[in-house]
Structures are given as C-alpha cells and as structure tokens.
C-alpha cells in the first residue's frame, strides 16, 4: 500500500521543502533530489510488492511484474491484477493520491 500512497509521500516532501524556503519545483539540487529519490523509492516499493506476491504463492507461473512500473504505477497495478487476481484497490488509491498531489502541488507552485 506504500506504493499506492507514493504521490502523498512526494507531496509531503514538497511541503517540507517549501516550508524550509526551497522552491520544490525550481531548478535546484533539492528538487532534483526529490525527483530522483522518489523514482528510486517507487521502483523499490514495486520490487518489494512483487516479491511479496511471489512469496505468498499468488504468482505460480512467475510472470514479471516490476518492468510494468515503467508504465507508471497504473500499469503495474493493472498487471498485478492480471497476474495475482488481486483487487484494484491500490490503483484507485494511487489515482486519488495523484489527484491530491496535483491539487497540493498547484497550491505550492509560485504564482
């Protein structure tokens, strides 16, 4: 479920940066760091989720899951649904989190 809430975690990092007086969307090292680390964290969370599905025996044919993160988590959650017959709840959570992120980021953006 951490992967489903990843946009909210990124929004929290942006809010922390803005409260520290750093432009979270500017051409600075801190903003690039958040982008890089959030990408790394997304892939790591997807890898750990795929491992948990394999360990639970929900992927007996060992079909791949992690490369579908390149399609955003949307593609990963759909592939996860196909492979393990899991519900689409994480996809809906990610979509709601993404909408909240867009609203929060637009409020943080300099006018």
Question: What's the SSE blueprint?
Answer:
Layout: H1 6-19, H2 29-55, H3 72-84, H4 89-108
Helix pairs in contact: 1-2, 1-4, 2-3, 3-4
Distance between the termini: 34 Å
Kindly state the mean pLDDT as a whole number? 89
SSE order, as H and E? HHHH
Query: Which regions are unreliable across 5 or more consecutive residues at pLDDT < 50?
Result: none
Q: How would a crystallographer describe the biggest sheet?
A: none
State the helicity in percent bands. Answer: 55-70%
Number of helices: 4
Helix/strand/pairing category: mainly alpha
**What is the number of beta strands?**
0
Beta-strand percentage range:
under 5%
Rg from C-alpha positions?
16 Å
Tertiary shape: elongated
Structure description:
This protein is an all-alpha fold and 111 residues long. The chain is built from four helices and no strands. The chain is elongated, with a radius of gyration of 16 Å. It starts with 5 loop residues before the first helix and ends with a helix.
